[in-house]
Amino acid sequence: MAIPKSRLDGNWAEAKQKLGSQECCVVAVTGINAHLNALQDYLSNSPSDVDLRARIRMTSSGHTYYDCHQLRNAVTRTDKIRKEQNDKLEQVDSTDLCTLAFQELARGVSSLADGPFETTCRDVFLRVVCANSYKAKDPMFHTDKAPLRGYVTLYGPGTDYMMRTSTPLEYMTLRGLGTLPGGLDTSLKRAGNLEFIVMKGDYYKHQSSLVTSFWQRNFACVHRSPPATTGGRRVIVSLDLADGTDDREWCVVNKPREWRNGMTQRKSRLVA
């Protein structure tokens, strides 16, 4: 099998440099529009309710591509497993645009590991959610239990997030009211369709200081899934560095997920 090229298309190095600043909690990655368009074409009309999360190995380009290809197959595999594609690496189609897009995002997010995470974050977790009837009635603002999370909405409303870090008081206000008083709400933004953002989580670059000793979210991006006014369709892809307390894979098709233990926020139906 011919392994796809190893060069990244996106401006991941620029994103990594920006994330290195303590004042920056979220960045948008450019240069990957072709990959995001390929994912949108493939996933927007996929099975109605899909919630898949898989570990993508970054140990070699062959492993990375194969794992992405397996996830791509799993998205549309609801009844019959295609064993010939499941068991034989040599049958992987190296021209598959969806798999190539998954590979670009996985390798790109992996390249953002900085400091101590460069040695501990060997893999990434890639999640695909296709919700035919998106029903996040009252989603809470929160931060992620991960060093970094990459996120893109392929269909439906995008993620609401704060463009700067928050104070403890602002965080509690957002959790309780869903907005900030006065003119401070100008710090809130909704990600656009096909806008790939990378958000710092609670475990990004632990630095010993008086602030971080009691405010773990000092560097994290506060965000939430958008409130649903109607039960329309929403499709998202997210990627986490494989470091932190959340180290689980799952494969759920046509089954709603309401809660996940160990997370600080409520999980509405089929919501990341």
Describe the structure.
This protein is an alpha+beta fold and 272 residues long. It has one domain: Jelly Rolls. The protein has helices spanning 12-19, 33-43, 61-76, 83-87, 97-111, 117-120, 168-177, and strands spanning 26-28, 49-57, 123-131, 148-155, 160-162, 188-190, 197-200, 223-224, 234-241, 250-253. The strands form two sheets. A seven-stranded antiparallel β-sheet has the order 1-7-4-9-3-2-10, covered by helices on one side. Helix 2 (33-43) crosses helix 5.
What are its keywords?
single chain, 272 residues, alpha+beta, Jelly Rolls, seven-stranded antiparallel beta sheet, three-stranded antiparallel beta sheet, 10 strands, globular
Summarize the structure in short.
With 272 residues, the protein is α+β, with helices and mostly antiparallel strands.
